[in-house]
Amino acid sequence: MVVSQSHFSQRARLFYLRMLCAAGLVITLQAGFLEGVAYSNPQNATNSKSPAHNSGLKARKKFKLTIQPGEVIGVSLKANKAPLADITGELAKRLNTRIVLGPGMEKQLVTTEFVDLPLDMALQQLTPRVYVDYEIRSGAPPARVGILLFALDDPAPALNALVSGNSQAFLIEGNTEDISETQPTNEGLQVELEGNSLTVKSKKQTLVAVVVTVAHMLGVPAEIKYESAEILDVEIKKMLVEDAIPRLSPNLRLFVRADLWKSTRTPLRVSLVAPEKVDGQ
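and the corresponding structure tokens:
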């Protein structure tokens, strides 16, 4: 069979067009494939998750807090933009104590990481001004009443922010104005205050009278929760206030505030309480 050149060219062109169409189809398919890959980007995939899944991610804690109990409490914390209120809420629960935030710290976000720091040092990692209120009594280590965390420009916390009076107690307010450093009340009672050193000389004086006089010298309230008839014969000479007051009676409680920022300790209140009941009595 003889095939003319014109007929051959026509068939060749038809074959060529079919090849181009096939190539064009491949290109289209490849473009579609690339487009599909682009939409499978992990960033876009995250947005495609269900709202419930996203809310679960947001609910995860932004911090990890570990408490090592003991005579010296150790604190470990890893936080990434975590609300300070959440951290202190968990810390208060673990320590079984109150923690109060100053106005400038209520919405503070914390990013930090430290391991096994003593509690006082750990608190200072969270905020510049740290106050800790303690109750001091005879025969026991100081008991933590609560913690206050304040910003540098916050007003000073009230003295009764954590330690407040009892409505059933007889409260006598102290006054530091116009008080000499030595105040003899009568021949049987003399109280002296030199800096943070206290001298008390009592001969046949009631414990109530001594407590009221000491609180007056310190400039703090005297809280009488128990009308003791105890007579006090004692002489304490130039002893630190925190050591002297528990020596006067096991029924006395001295509340102080430790300012970790300024490294100072300030008396807040002196309370006379009823004797503790002994088992079987």
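(Above: one complete record from the training split.) The chain has seven helices and 14 strands.
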